[in-house]
Description:
Elements: H1 56-59, E1 74-77, H2 78-87, H3 98-103, E2 116-119, E3 129-132, E4 134-135, H4 137-145, E5 149-152, H5 159-164
Parallel strand pairs: 1-2, 2-4, 3-5
Amino acid sequence: MKLNEIKDNPGARDKFKRVGRGIGSGKGKTAGRGVKGQKARTGVRLNGFEGGQLPIYRRLPKRGFVNPFRKEYAPLNLGALDKAIEEGKLPAGQPIDEAALKAAGLVRSSNKLAGVRLLGKGEIKRAVTITVAGASASAIAAIEAAGGSVTVTAPKAEPEAAAEA
């Protein structure tokens, strides 16, 4: 095979529709943009604009409270943990920490997350020693019933909070 013989699989690329190329093309004259006005031009900034009237998102009252200091955790269910050990993604007899869980692909890694929280959905059949930032009471009870142990560490500080302190 040579470089000049390489080509896509049939149907891999759709043919680009050329607009504004005469009325016979089916997308001529206004090129599918209707007629006149700001929306027919490029650079439209009309989302949420109500012609100078106070917009609805400013007329309606704000409700509720969003805690800017809340901690968000990556969830991990017992069933997923047991399945990963069974498939050999995690070592069965050794202690498991958050770094091992991220390496196995069980939890997403993000700087915004305060760590991993172990939840009690599913069941675990083997004794494991696991260290996480949080765990539900049912998850701790299930792991201890299987002969394992759970160590709950303090969640890691938010990156912004650590920079200010």
